[in-house]
Design brief:
The structure is a single chain. This protein is an alpha/beta fold. It has one domain (31-59, 70-218): P-loop containing nucleotide triphosphate hydrolases (Rossmann fold), CATH 3.40.50.300. It contains seven helices and ten strands. The strands form two sheets. It has a six-stranded mixed sheet, sandwiched between helices. A hairpin with a 2-residue loop joins strand 1 and strand 2 (17-29). The model has no long low-confidence stretch (mean pLDDT 90).
């Protein structure tokens, strides 16, 4: 997926003060590219990722997917785009504790009519990630690395055009971190555009392009 940001600004009001989380950002991420949004905590990189992923809306500016503006879409259409074309991986995993591994992976399909994938697809995806013995487990029965792999399976099962990962290795040891990055980079090698948000230089060095975010601006 080709992503273009034109003059993106996001403002929040905290009490009587207005804070610009990101300001006047112009950026293009080409189809199949692997980039890292790199900067310290509070720099605005996660806010920018949420805008790209249609989880938040900019105060001003325009977001285009493959040349089409998406900023003015209804919430229903934004949700459809998120569930069909975008995959998300977060540091906190965001797994539902009462659901089994396989049901967590299948969660996004519940809202699609007809479903784009079935239980067999989820099993194959989990087998690829070495989780075939864990499909009926609950998240609290898994290690941190296993939970992150479940999150990756959930993100990749519908073969997204764009994969967004926000500090995906922040809670993992170095060996598991490498395995997680390898999995996402394999998806990128197969054509998925990959955007990783990180403040870790070791993670940043793996990307093909580094985009520095500082005080809400691209530097």
């Amino acid at each position: 997926m080709n992503v273009i940001l034109r003059n993106i600004t996001k403002r929040y009001q905290t009490g009587h003060q207005i804070v610009e989380a990101v300001r006047e950002i112009d950026l293009e991420i080409t189809d199949g590219e692997y980039v890292c949004l790199f900067g310290p905590s509070g720099s605005g990189k996660s806010t920018l990722m949420h805008i790209i992923g249609l989880m938040d809306q900019a105060t001003s500016g325009e977001v285009l997917f493959d040349g089409e503006s998406v900023g003015g879409l209804s919430e229903i259409l934004r949700a459809q785009l998120r569930s069909t074309r975008i995959g998300f991986v977060f540091q906190s995993f965001n797994l539902l504790p009462r659901l089994s591994v396989i049901d967590n992976v299948l969660l996004s399909s519940i809202y699609q009519d007809p479903p784009r994938f079935r239980k067999d697809d989820a099993i194959r995806c989990l087998e690829t990630l070495g989780l075939q013995q864990r499909i009926d487990h609950r998240p609290n029965q898994l290690s941190g690395g296993e939970r992150q792999r479940v999150a990756i399976a959930r993100a990749l099962i519908h073969k997204p055009d764009l994969l967004l990962a926000d500090e995906p290795t922040g809670n993992l040891d170095s060996e598991t971190s490498k395995a997680v990055m390898d999995m996402m980079e394999a998806a990128n090698a197969n054509g998925t555009s990959l955007i990783v948000v990180s403040h870790n230089p070791d993670i940043a060095r793996r990307a093909n392009r580094l985009i520095h975010i500082h005080n809400g601006s691209v530097s």
